[in-house]
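User: I'll paste a sequence; please echo it back and then give the predicted structure.

Assistant: Echoing your sequence first, then the prediction.
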Amino acid sequence: MSKLCRIAKVTLGTASDRLNDLKTKGIDTIYSVIGMKNGIYDEAAPIIEFANSVKSLGLKWCAGIDLLPLYQGVIAETGNDNRMFVRKAERAGFENTHKLFTALQGAGVKASFARIDIDLFNSLGGISLSFEEQTRMLNAVINGVKAVEPACRIIFNSVDSIDNEKAKKWFNRFQVSGGKGFDIISLSYELNAETFFTLSQNMSDLSRRFDKDIMVDISGHEKVDDLDIGVADLDSAIELVPMEKGFGAVYADTALDTAVLVA
């Protein structure tokens, strides 16, 4: 029996009936993205309601922390003043994450995982950040989560699923720059027979080099049953990651209408 974590990416607020349907298909974790902004904790009621519905079904919840809207709001205040931007973004990241997770905890729900897309800094127009500055901003968000939910596992997601040198360089620099501890490396990937072996090599190297669990996000595929490389092939590759560091996979909600997950 597969021990892989099965994660479905759904829209925040998806109905309980649909979540239960995903559970019957073998899903054990629900992933939904929260668009972070200043004061998000004052508008937490829909997030709490959704997290409660996930919890009531016995499923785990992965909170996607989308920092881009929050940082864009900070840019609107500071303009291109890098020093001011970093200081305000660092504070906003910690405060909003900490207060949101505090509100969730107060309502009796929690996230088993918190995911951050590390490529977000490429989308901040007009701001050029050193790696040390990026690390400070990510550390602030990790601190905000861990101060409330120490057991919540932090996922860093990268689009560099088949570029080992680039991915390796990023995680090396994060460590050297004083990056806080995280738990799982997630690789966004488009299933493709020509790059599949390269993905497997990258997973193995990253797991050994950084001693982290590895997962693969194929939620960009709304349909997967007609591809040369299928979910069973992906499962096998993840299970072969050294030292049992192959953690699991993320699927699009719609892909699970036709994809068959092997028990």
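The chain has a mean pLDDT of 94. Residues 90 and 137 are 5 Å apart (CA to CA).
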